[in-house]
Write a structure and sequence with these properties.
27% of the residues lie in helices and 40% in strands. The chain contains four helices and eleven strands; from the N terminus they run βαββαββαβαβββββ. The strands form three sheets. The protein has a five-stranded antiparallel beta sheet. A four-stranded antiparallel beta sheet has the order 3-1-8-9. The longest helix is centred in the N-terminal third of the chain and has 16 residues.
Length: 208
């Protein structure tokens, strides 16, 4: 049946995507051309687990594992804040938006349980520490020193406060397809967390 390139993520609502798209626009305006490949707003998400090539016939069992994890976690809110880059502003490779400390322990617990649940299916737990962030752009491999340093200055001089709140109400199994214009992400499964009705309002998937 083949396989698909897949990952597990928390999706963003349209309102947050718009805020981040506006931030990206401001950064792009001050950045030398063709230095950064910016992530389209529709592709913005919070990655919990990259799976790589997932056998299609494994999807049902994998989703079942995710449902078991989701039942043990109630929805919670995260605050998007700060602008940064890996590995440093002097030599940026990845540009990202971070997450405030509030409820970060709950996100780490959810991530840990997802990791542990998928080990029996052949997906080893990540050895590196979990560093939750939303990738806004990646620096081109062809970018030259002066352009990269100019980008670092733009990032260092651009301060952001709280960008918005993200409610983690479900997990999403996502498919990634490479196309000429870049990657296209498609949701394969929507897995609600326990108690997915908060204050009488269903915590649903963005754009559902």
């Amino acid at each position: 049946m083949g396989s698909v390139r897949a990952f597990i993520a928390v999706e963003l609502p349209p309102t947050l995507r718009q805020v981040l798209d506006e931030l990206t626009g401001k950064l792009r305006a001050g950045t030398p051309p063709r230095v950064v490949k910016w992530v389209p707003a529709d592709n913005l998400h919070l990655t919990l687990k990259f799976l790589g090539q997932m056998p299609v016939e494994q999807q049902e069992e994998l989703v079942g594992k995710l449902h078991a994890v989701a039942k043990a976690h109630a929805p919670f809110a995260l605050t998007l804040t700060s602008l940064g880059c890996f590995p440093s502003a002097r030599k940026p490779h990845v540009i990202w938006v971070g997450i405030a400390e509030r409820n970060l322990d709950r996100l780490r617990a959810l991530h840990h349980d997802v990791e542990e649940a998928l080990v029996p299916l052949g997906y080893p737990a990540e050895e590196r520490d979990f560093s939750p962030h939303l990738t806004l752009g990646r620096v081109s491999r062809d970018a030259r020193g002066p352009s990269v340093r100019a980008l670092g200055e733009v990032l260092g001089n651009h301060e952001v406060g709280e960008l918005g709140e993200l409610t983690v109400g479900h997990l999403a199994l996502m498919r990634s397809d490479t196309q000429p214009g870049g990657a296209r992400y498609t949701r394969m499964a929507h897995i609600p967390l326990a108690q997915s009705v908060v204050a009488g309002v269903e915590v649903d998937a963005p754009g559902r």
